[in-house]
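hi got a favour to ask and not much time before my train. below you get a single protein, a line of residues and a line of whole numbers that encode the local backbone shape. could you go over both lines and see whether the tokens make sense for that sequence. a few lines back from you is plenty, here it is:
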Amino acid sequence: MSIKMKELPISERPYEKLELYGEKSLSNAELLAIIIKSGTKEETSVELAQKILNLNDTNNLDSLNFLRELTIEELIKIKGIGKVKALQLKALCELTTRMNTPTNYKKFQIKEPNDVAKLLMNDLRFLKQEKVKVIILNNKNIVLKIQDISLGGANFANISIKDVLNEPVKMQAPKIILVHNHPSGDSTPSKQDINITDLLYDASDLMGIELLDHIVIGNMEYTSIFTQKLQN
């Protein structure tokens, strides 16, 4: 029989521990235990939370990013995790993503490739498919709009030059930046990425639009194809 939460010392109960020592003092299991609130007759909420953490089959056992990929079906297979608790966990993961995503991007100025990464890293790095976006800018490199172009497979995305330029031409925008992710987490551009960059640069130039860069987003890394070209 598991020890009940109320039988533990106050310093070991997640709610009380957070109140006494602050949220940074809690382990990942204790933080999750507060989200799922209650355990079962056999297990405390902390033990139940640890079962969720044990679902991490990635190489980085300290990372919590795997939680984003867990489905509701996978979560409710754990005894004590019903649909409500599973939905709460999925909502929590989405909130953390939104908290790290700039909301007022239309006033955001792009000065360097790192600014693009700050803007779109959290939006793209967890995706399991390649997604293509075009950032539409004014003459001062301030973002006017971010347009979704296409969604591809795990290793490719079909990028249509016409689709990329359609909205910038309508808006009579002077500058654009192409962005897409690599689900593998490795931001190294492929030959296809470089070829499409060259084609888009020429097509944009014909339309009087300047292609400033093509950024490839990986997992907490990015590559600027234009910067890479200059270095080579």
Notes: The chain has a mean pLDDT of 88.
